[in-house]
Amino acid sequence: VMSGSGQATVTATCAGKSTDVTFKVLDPKVNDSDPKNIADQDYTGSAITPDVKLYLGTTELIKETDYVVNYNNINPGTATIEISGRNSYAGYNKSYDFKIVKGKLTDEMVQAGEYTVNTATGEVSSASITGLTYNVDYEATAEYKSSTATSVTYDVSVKGIGNYEGGPFTK
To answer: What does the pLDDT look like over 114-156, one tens digit per residue?
Structure first.
């Protein structure tokens, strides 16, 4: 099995006569372009699987029949796409890297969130932003603003941590 592109020669023998046939082996290419140009992907907390199509010349190969694609790609940083040939394309193996960037905490997310401040300590005792985990994806701090005979008002400042960035935003 030949891996990659180049020339190959096959000797065919029939009824005691032999002949050599030389042919060009094309290297399959991904997405009909340089896969190193995969755009940065935003962190989502789930596997990120950019679409991969493999071609031999202009003929699209069949995923899961001619090749398989594996991904190593959930957290921010460098992610990898691994392509392995199958059947007639066994021996073809390529890896390509792309970047996963931290998720974005936005002011809109913070404003839609709910926060509880312990008035005895002045600390945020609970917080809720849809789809995110308090003290894992974001942190919140409280700052005393004002009080009346029946209520105390705090500004809550929220910023991304861990796999998220953004802020601080105040609610």
So the answer is: 999 998 899 999 999 999 999 999 999 999 999 999 989 999 9
Query: What does DSSP say about strands 114-118 and 123-128: parallel, antiparallel, or unpaired?
Result: antiparallel
pLDDT at 105 over 80: yes
Q: Report CA-CA distances (Å) from 93 to 4, 6, 25.
A: 9, 16, 15
Can you read off the two tokens belonging to residue 59?
């003929």
43-50 contacts at long range (C-beta below 8 A, 24 or more positions apart): 43/75, 43/76, 43/100, 43/101, 43/102, 43/103, 43/163, 43/164, 44/103, 45/74, 45/103, 45/131, 45/163, 46/74, 47/71, 47/73, 47/74, 48/73, 48/74, 48/79, 48/100, 49/73, 50/81, 50/98
CA distance 141 to 90: 56
Which of these, 32, 75, 72, lies nearest to 55 by C-alpha position?
32
3-state SS class at 89: helix
How far apart are the C-alpha atoms of 92 and 64, rounded to whole Å? 14
Residues 71, 81: contact at Cβ < 8 Å? Answer: yes
pLDDT of 32 above 50: no
Instruction: Compute how many other C-beta atoms are within 10 angstroms of the C-beta atom of residue 115.
Output: 19
The answer on pLDDT for 36 being more than 70 is: no
